[in-house]
Task: structure prediction
Amino acid sequence: MVTDYIHATIAMLIFPGGIFALIMGLLFKGVDRIAVARLQRRIGPPVLQPIFDIIKLSTKEILIPESANAIAFKIAPLLGLCGSLICAALVPIPGVWNGIPGTGDIFILLYLFSLPAISFMLGGSASSSPFGALGFSREMVIMFAYEIPLLATLLAVAVRADWQLSLSSIISYQTTHGPFLFDPVMLPAFVAYLLFIPATLGAGLFDIPEAEEEVIEGPILEYSGPLLALFNMMSAVKLMVVLNLGVALFFPLLLPGGIWLNLPFHLLKCLVLMLTAVSLFRASTGRLRIDQAFTFFLKYPSSLAYASLFGAYLLR
Result:
């Protein structure tokens, strides 16, 4: 029991969450910014720019609006970062990490996924800024919209994996029967998950709660210094979580050779997924209105996810 607690603590603070997830998330964000810039025929910033931003913000002063709820204002980014770090420790890395012993249930992960969005809403409402309030309402609507296809996608994967609710068991099933990415029944759910990724990260069409031209960063408008750095760190870890989960759900292919081959292979799969679902999406799309985004998720990703769920249920 004590050993399990030690492993869980290491997982959340060092690897695969903690320091590892944060560094890789910041590096992936740097690659994403370069990829978007090149697709738009720009040079773009250096790949280490997100790390430089964190260091710079950590040296700045924290400014809190006089009318803000100071306690909630300070707690919000910490809540989001802690939620992302726990998610990073729960999601297995095929051939490298099996998840925290006794956990990894997909429904626990579904609940924890909402913490970063809740932290945005808490920070926006606590700031007393009208732009923060607008960002709060938009974040809440978009979260309700993308959680419907996400739940259906997770259920479809669980049913297709012989009613397994543990991510490690789902990976083991695919190791035996083949990745779901190549399963025609699960292909609609994979497309739905591809659309979920930019929505939960606020990229491309779904850059709505923080739209610079409309609500001037919305929930995080009043944040500065180390508190803003915490939000940036949360976003980086969250990026790695959604990429890791996508690989675990649909393409947990292993290489013979242990952790030293499977970890780089896993990061390569995450990189391809990010360039497809985030970078290309950001570079080639504008932004929807909040009502358009909500309707979009109810019509298309939800229909795709439910199609896979229905097909997986018929096959079982």
User: Anything to note?
Assistant: The CA atoms of residues 210 and 217 lie 4 Å apart. The radius of gyration is 19 Å.
